[in-house]
Predict the 3D structure of the following.
Amino acid sequence: MPTTLSNAAFFGHPDTVLEYARAAANLGLWESERLLCEASFSKDAPLLELGCGAGRIAFGLQKAGWRDITATDFSPQMLEAARAVADANADANAASDGVANAAAGDGFSADGDDDGGNGNGNGGGGDAVGNLRFAFADATALPFADAAFASVIFGFNGLMMIPLEARREAALREMHRVLRTGGTAIFTGHERNDPRRAAHWDEERARWAAGTQNPALERLGDYDHTTPAGRMFIHAATRAETHALALRCGFAVEFTAMRSEIATESREVREFSDDTRFWVLRKPM
C-alpha cells in the first residue's frame, strides 16, 4: 500500500504562501480562465471556487463582475493570505509588493490540514469581502447544501493535487453534488501525454513495469517530490482517464483543451505555471 501523501506543509509554507499571494496581487486571472468563465458561468448566479489559495482567481472574478462568489481552501495559511490581500487591495495606493509581503508575513506556519482538508480546520470562517466570501472547506466533503451553486471552479491543477484516486473522485462527486442541475464545473490538470514530458513518463512506466517505482505512489501518473517548501504531490492524468472520471461522477464533458490552445497567455503567466488541460463539465438536466 502507498504511504500517506500530503501537500499540507507545502501549501502552509511561507514561501508557497508568498508566491500565491504575489500571484493574487499582481497576476490575476489567466486569459484562458477569463474566456472560459465568461463563456460558461453566469455573473449573477452563485459561484464556488475550490482551492482558492490566496485568492488569485476569486479576486479576478470579482473584478470582472461576478457578484456572488464563495472561495474555499483547505489551508488556513492560504486563507489568511487571501484576507490580507483583500485588506491591502482595499487601499488603492498599496504597492503590490507590500500586498504580497503583508499576505505572507511571519505569522504563517506550515501546520495545515491534510490535502483537501479534514473538516477540522478553522482557517475559513466565512469572511466576506463585498460579494466575495472566504471559507475553510474540505474539497472531498464540502460543507454546502445540495445544488447550492450554479458554477464551480477548481483552478491551477488543484483537483489533481489531492493524493489518492478515491479522494480525487470524492472531490469531483462533491462538485457534482453542490451544483444545480444544468450547472457547470471547470478544472485543470497536467496532461500525462504531453510530448514535452514524454521522457519522464517513459521512465516512470519502466519503473512501474519493473516494480521499482516510488513506494509512496498509488498509480502511474502520481508525482511526489521534495521542494524547499516541503513535499509536493500532483497526479498527471491522461485525457481518457480524466474523461472517464468525469463520466463516472455523473458529468457530461462539454469541452476540453490545453491552455495554449485556448489563449495566448502573458509571459508572466507562462513563467508562473506550465501549460495545463482545461475541462468544462455540465451537470445534466
Summary: The longest strand covers residues 179-189. Residues 28-72+120-282 form a domain with the Rossmann fold fold (CATH 3.40.50.150).
